[in-house]
From TrEMBL:
<dbReference type="Pfam" id="PF02579">
    <property type="entry name" value="Nitro_FeMo-Co"/>
</dbReference>
<dbReference type="InterPro" id="IPR036105">
    <property type="entry name" value="DiNase_FeMo-co_biosyn_sf"/>
</dbReference>
<dbReference type="InterPro" id="IPR003731">
    <property type="entry name" value="Di-Nase_FeMo-co_biosynth"/>
</dbReference>
<protein>
    <recommendedName>
        <fullName>Dinitrogenase iron-molybdenum cofactor biosynthesis domain-containing protein</fullName>
    </recommendedName>
</protein>
<feature type="domain" description="Dinitrogenase iron-molybdenum cofactor biosynthesis">
    <location>
        <begin position="10"/>
        <end position="97"/>
    </location>
</feature>
Amino acid sequence: MKICLAIYQSRLAALFDNATGLQVYTCESDNTICPAGDISLPFGDPTLRVSALSSCGANILLCGAISGCTTRMIQEHGINVFGWLRGDISTVLEAWREDRLETLLMPGCRGFRCCRRFRGPHTTQ
C-alpha cells in the first residue's frame, strides 16, 4: 500500500491546495512504513495535483484541509482521502500505524464521520 502525505516543509500542509509536495511511503503487511520518494506538486490547478498524486500509485492521501470537490476528484482515482489532519510527518505516520488518525484532526472538525462513514484508516471505501 502506498501512503502519500501532502506536505509543507516538515509538516502536513494546512491546506491541500498549498502543499509544496508529497512524501510517499509504503506500508508493509507487518505495519512497517518505509520512505518511497518525494514528489513536487504543481501550484494552482487542482487537476494537475490530482494527476501527480495518481501517477505515483497512491492508495491513501493524508492531508490538511481539502475541499469536497478535490476530495471527490482524488477518490475517482481510487485513492482514499483522510483530510483535516494536522501534525509533523513523524507524528502523522505514527498515528497511521497505530490506527489513531482521529487524534490529529484539526480543531473544530467533528471527525471523519461528518464527511463520510468512518471505517478506520486501514480500510478502503
